Amino acid sequence: MKTPLISRYHPILLLMLLFAAVSCGNEAEETVSQEEVLIEQDSVAEVLDEVDVIRDTLTGNWINADFLAAIRSNKSIYFSQNKMLPVAEVIIDEASMQMQLVFGYNEGCSGSFVRTNDQLKLEACDGNAAISFHFEYDPFKKVLFLIQDDIRYKLERSSSKVEEAGMGIQKLLAAELLQGNWQSVKATRPFGPKISFDTKGFVRGLSSYNKYSFVLGYDSYPAFMDVIKLQRGAQQTDNWYWQLEGDSLRFFSYKESAPDIFEQQAVYVRTP
Q1: Same topology between domain 60-165 and domain 178-271
Q2: DSSP β-ladder status, 89-93 and 98-103
């Protein structure tokens, strides 16, 4: 009896069909893998594009982070001034590729910088090639580092737009120290019963004084205490010594003829 042809080759057909199915599966997997690679490549390109966008964010004022930490700790500019070194403030303008550096608020310099990714180089300051600086930006922590003699000095942004040197830190100091309302406990003229300070340099309740600013450099001040400049109108400015302890604000007068004597003129407490 002859075996039917289909029955005789049935196992072979099954093997051929199985092999074809596996081959198709491999081709499908290979196609999917190629598509995934293309998608991943597109995703990387998009990420790089996003990084390029993020890199254009350094314009503004940057303040020495050690100085800010000292201010937040001891509430005194005078006792924090040594933390301004080596650079107190950096002003970056990416539109013009200009950078200004301020050293301790007594002197500074400026020049053109070059940016490569997150590296900034100022090759010459005020035309002096002997004065150069290298900065590195951390896009994750959003801070700027001055790298000098293998030491990294951190700077924090105080403004996202270019402001005159010192203006950004004046606003920041106002917010950290005096911003808000104060009620008098003891006061003599020109100090009124209630005063208020804002972050834009305006003061209210201090007789005819309408503006204020913090003294940042103390080379020309003989006393060992913070100094605030109070301004009347556009011309007249008076200096007053002040001290902040907790929520208590004190103003003192000082006479060079009696350098060891500070006369307390007013005491205020912070109010809501």
Answers
A1: yes
A2: antiparallel
Segment (H or E) for 68: helix 65-74
Distance CA 59, CA 53 (A): 13
Please write the tens of the pLDDT for every residue from 167-220. 888 999 999 999 999 999 988 877 889 999 999 999 999 888 999 999 988 887
Residue 2 DSSP label: P
Q: How many CB atoms lie within 10 A of CB 241?
A: 22
So where are the chain's domains? 1-55, 60-165, 178-271
Report, at the CATH architecture level, how domain 178-271 is classified.
Beta Barrel (2.40)
Q: Is 0.70 topped by the overall pTM?
A: yes
* Of 212, 174, 177, 176, nearest in space to 191 by CA: 212
Span 60-165: which CATH code? 2.40.128
Peptide bond into 11 cis (omega under 30): no
What one-letter code names the amino acid at 210? Answer: N
